[in-house]
Amino acid sequence: MNNKIQQDAQHLAIGAGKFKIPMPPSFSDKHKQRQYEKQRLAAGFRAFALHHFDEGLAGHITLRDCIEPDTFWVNPLGIHFSMIKASDLVRIDHLGNIVDGAHAVNNAAFAIHSRIHMARPDVNAVAHAHTKYGRAFSSLGQPLLPISQDACMFFENHGIFATFTGVVAEKDEGDLIAESLGEHTAVILQNHGLITLGSSVDAAVANFILMDSCCQSQLLAQAAGPLTLINPDIARKTKAANGSELVTWGNFQPLYSMLLA
């Protein structure tokens, strides 16, 4: 465990030095790590299904392979998120060649995710779906505002891709999406939906669920009246705490436990 995660643990929980709290695992065997991460990816799709983030053939979560990092795992085309198993996942390279798996892959998943994985070597997982609140909020062409502790996670931490040209099918558009993402954790695809990133599948999925919820909260608040925003300095401080590697990974763990049960 690195020093940064140890420090975050001390800030996160009373008794972190004495009692066991969830921590990201480490592996000496890359093949065991691959299997573990594929299982987490399959669980990510189950979590999306639980939140009704499943719209026909749309939506994808990808995971950089820990052994061959110029390839990534993605969901097979046409299998419902609630039914995806680790053995169903497909591995594809940045040229669009399927190198592992027995299913076709959504072309938009390749066009978007391959370019983000190439542009952001610090990112291991990318999540995207067409959700009710993400779609609605994306039509506004506005950023999420720091109206709550949770929304501070995305303060100065997401981009807006302000061009909609139809279903993403070309790598050039994927490059533009990656460019609008910059170094942030998320991007709003105008008139389309949301994308979130993470150092793990756990973090990317938890970030997505949180972002969609923050879209819902802001839509409700804007409909009710004028917004009262959190002070920018406080928002940045809150983002630093909520956006740490340990917290973003940890946000997925209660949901994973429920999925296992």
From TrEMBL:
Classification via SMART domains: Aldolase_II (SM01007)
Task: Tell me which residues make up the Class II aldolase/adducin N-terminal domain.
Answer: 39-219
Taxonomically, which superkingdom?
Answer: Bacteria
InterPro entries hit by this protein:
Aldolase-II_Adducin_sf, Aldolase_II/adducin_N, Aldolase_II/adducin_N_sf
- Give the protein family: Belongs to the aldolase class II family.
Enumerate the PANTHER family for this protein: ADDUCIN, CLASS II ALDOLASE_ADDUCIN N-TERMINAL DOMAIN-CONTAINING PROTEIN
Name of the featured protein: Class II aldolase/adducin family protein
